Structures are given as C-alpha cells and as structure tokens.
Amino acid sequence: MPEPFDAMTPAVAGGPGFPPEATAPPTVGVEEEFVLADRHSGSAVYRSISVVGAARARLGGPHATPELSPSQVETVSAVCRTAAELEAEVVRLRTGAAVAAAEHDCLLVPSGMAVLGRSGPPPVLGQARYHALAGRFGPVVDGQGVNSCHVHVGVADREEAIQAVNHLRGWMPLLLALTANSPYNDGADTGYASWRSMVWSRWPSAGPPPYLRGAAHYAWVVDQLVGTGAAMDQAMLYWHVRPSAHLPTIEVRIADVLPDAGTTTAYALLVRALVGHAVEAVRAGERAPEVPDLLLRAACWQAARHGPVGTLPSTHTRDCAPLGVVRLIEELWKRVEPYLSRHGDDRRVGDWLSDVQLTGPGSARQRRVAQQREGDLRAVVDDLAVPLP
Length: 389
Fold this sequence. Notes:
The structure is a single chain. The protein is of the alpha+beta class. Helix content is 44%, strand content 13%. It contains 13 helices and eleven strands. The strands form three sheets. Strands 1, 2, 3, 4, 5, 8 and 9 form a seven-stranded antiparallel beta sheet that branches. It has a two-stranded antiparallel ribbon with strand order 6-7. A hairpin with a 5-residue loop joins strand 8 and strand 9.
C-alpha cells in the first residue's frame, strides 16, 4: 500500500501533547479503501485499472490508487487540520471516486468485504510488488480484497511516536468494535461484525504491534521480520497501529472502511485525540501497560466477532479485566475529551459514539437493511454505495 500525504507536515504545533503556546491542531489524514460493485448485479467486479485512471483525472494522481485486488480503489486524502477541512476532503474524494466508478458501470461501496461476489483473485494490475506478494505468500493472498480506513496523525519526533504506539495498542480492540463494517462476504453472513479483520490477520506480519522499547528495538523487530521473510520490507508491517515508515506520523490501521463521510471524519478526529493523549503520556514519563500480544490478539478477535456488544478485556490496563463496552467507551472518553474540546471536535465525536451505542456500527446497519429486505443483500450494496452528486 503506498504511503499517503507526500506533503504531510509534522504536528509540531497545537493540540494534545504539543506546546501550549501553539494553536494549530495536529495534522490528520485518511486513506479509505472501497469495493467496486457492478451497477446491475451488485457483485464485486475487476475494473480498478479503469476506475483508478478516471478517479486520478478527477481528483489528482496522488489521491486515487489501486490496491491488492482488482475490485478495489483506494483514496488518499490531503493533509488536514480542522474537522471541516477533513470532512470536505473525504466527501470530495468519495464523490470523485464514485463518479469515476459510475463512468465504468460500477458502484463505489464502503464495506470491509465485498457483500456480493468474491473480492478478488491473486494480485493483478501488473504491479511487481503485488506479484511478489503472491509468489512469497501463496494462498494467503487469495481473497485479500479487504477494505480499511487508515488514519495518519502527525507526530514529529520518531522516538515519541514509537513510545506512543505502546500507549495506543491497548485501545485497538475497542476501536475495531466501534468501526466493524463487514458482516457479509460473497453473499453470506459470516457471523462476525468485522470479517475483514479476520481475513487480514492471515498475513504473518499483521496484528497488534509488539511492546516497543524504543527506536533501536523497533529497527531490530523490523530486521527480524524481514530476515525471516514474514515481511518483504518495513512497509509490510501490517500492525494495527504503527509509526509510519516514511512520514512523521502515527498510522492507526485497525478500522474497517466506514459507511459514510461523517462517520469517517468523527472516527479520524477520535484517533487524533487518542494519539494526542498518548504523546502527552510519553512526555509525562508514564509507562504504558505491557499487555501481551496474545491477549491483544484475543481481544481483537472478540471485537471482530461481536462488535460493541457485551464486554471486552480492558487491554489499556495492566490487569485486562473484562469491562462492558459502554464502560470502556466512558474510559476512552475521559482520555480524549480534553483534546477534542480544544479543537471543537467533542460534539461531533460524542454524537457518533452515542449513535454507535444506540444503533450499532456499520455491521449492524448492514444486517438491519438485509432483515428489512428479507435477506436481499443487493439492497445492502445499494444502501452503502456512495451517492452520486
């Protein structure tokens, strides 16, 4: 996956975890991946070469890219600082990509997996890297047409970014539960809220990041993964959260692609606030709880299976005691609210979290539509499809 935001500037001013005399919010940017579905059948179709070309003509070259499967399109936002800028950019990209898709008889569908049809054969597109992935990892590559939402938040200092990842890793199960949006795959209900995260976890370098001792330890881990062949290079650290390999950012990669632009914006703002809290904790000398990777993986499985229902391990604490999801959201809110309020983002994010608690995440929405239409999954595709202007 290409790194976005070639013009990304470090978050050296304003906002959580940054000098109080500064005023500008930290930078934030979003990558979103989408299914291309045939306009007539609703099934995934392999038209990304044509659609990406049309999208680049509308949006600019860096803002639309192909992905692993020929049934996918990825959009890459510009660098943003305010909620209004970010939402306008997400709307611009989604609308432009949807128009490009329509020019080739496709719908642009924000679902973590293809609701109807298979999400893609082994890599095509003539990209050497994707063919190399297929050669090294074999059947692991099959069906990897999964669609995520990745959020980049500017953090200028590399060592701080690595240490902040330790504070963030324990919150990934809750973020996954809140953003689950892939209950269906190839015409069947998987029984999961986020089947995408299960498919993605097949990669040997996917999952929670290890507890990192610092930049030298991070470099050693990368060298070991590349040396064993489990990762082709540093860019293939498919962790739930990681310091970017090429940018002064932390990248949170845990979420399914979200159903609409407003939800994407609220989620990205929540991530920015959580990163700010983590950076501030690092600067205050607070040590992150050293939760074992296996427990984090188990908690993410539970979140993927059930979404924001029942309990989850409190993996942001040392004892990992099970807590109700509502209580976990309250614990999260205590940490992010000061950072959200600083930039006027608290109302938007609070409303989204309340809505998730009342009506569920995207996976619940998909199942409601299917139930209302007596199991017609084509109706789910139509409901999700990004509207044309």
